[in-house]
Design a protein that fits this description.
Its main location: secreted. By secondary structure, the protein is α+β, with helices and mostly antiparallel strands. The protein is built from 9 helices and 5 strands; from the N terminus they run αβαβββαααααβαα.
Length: about 220
């Protein structure tokens, strides 16, 4: 009886070790998205490519979201002035998303939060930002009041400056958005396939995720 118990325990121990070894070997692809919230191409990429693709292979991704895009910043005696490509409303939404992301460390939650806002904007561009924030803030477990206070205050500006510095550091220099870096590397060829995010990711992951099986992949 004791021998049988020891055999079972040994088997469980070996099985756990095999599982841990497999998980340790699992590939991870870092995906860094540089975008701005009111850019139609960014919305389309997030809503139609990144979010659906993440639902299938998110466990293999290390996702980084940087809302800033083509914004410009200038510091004067009165502090930072930030101008966004699509105007003050875009700056506000950039800050709202940055404030939400800064309050969460779970990338599953982060992508859901960003998708919620981007989808709401895409469906009704004239919708009130407070209503959209209230609709999506529950995803990250933070009140919309706190997020809006951050976005409309100094913290929101600081987060934009931080994202701006990060955006400016990308080499070669970002010429437009959305821009996606894979494992911190920018590739012009892959940028041409932004309408096939899942195909790119599967190719770079050597088709390891189950979702990549039998995927029609024309990425070179």
């Amino acid at each position: 009886m004791i021998r049988n118990c020891l055999t079972i325990i040994a088997f469980i121990f070996v099985a756990i070790n095999i599982k841990c070894a497999y998980e340790a070997k699992k590939q991870t692809l870092k995906v860094s998205l540089y975008y701005e919230t009111l850019c139609p191409f960014c919305m389309a990429f997030i809503n139609e490519q990144l979010y659906p693709g993440y639902q299938k292979i998110g466990d293999y991704l290390d996702l980084e979201l940087i809302p800033y895009g083509n914004a410009r910043r200038n510091k004067s005696n009165d502090g930072w002035m930030i101008e966004c490509q699509h105007g003050p409303k875009e700056c506000l939404y950039n800050k709202i998303e940055a404030c939400g992301l800064a309050r969460n460390e779970d990338q599953n939650v982060s992508i859901s939060f960003v998708y919620c806002i981007q989808k709401a904007i895409q469906m009704d561009p004239s919708a009130n930002y407070k209503l959209i924030t209230k609709k999506c803030s529950g995803i990250i477990g933070v009140s919309s009041t706190e997020i809006i206070k951050c976005a409309e205050g100094e913290e929101g500006v600081e987060l934009m400056v931080k994202n701006g510095v990060k955006t400016d550091a990308v080499q070669p220099e970002i010429q437009g958005v959305p821009t996606v870096l894979y494992n911190d590397y920018y590739n012009d060829t892959l940028e041409e396939y932004n309408d096939n995010f899942l195909g790119i990711a599967c190719k770079l992951l050597n088709d390891e995720p189950n979702a990549c099986t039998n995927l029609e992949n024309e990425i070179l």
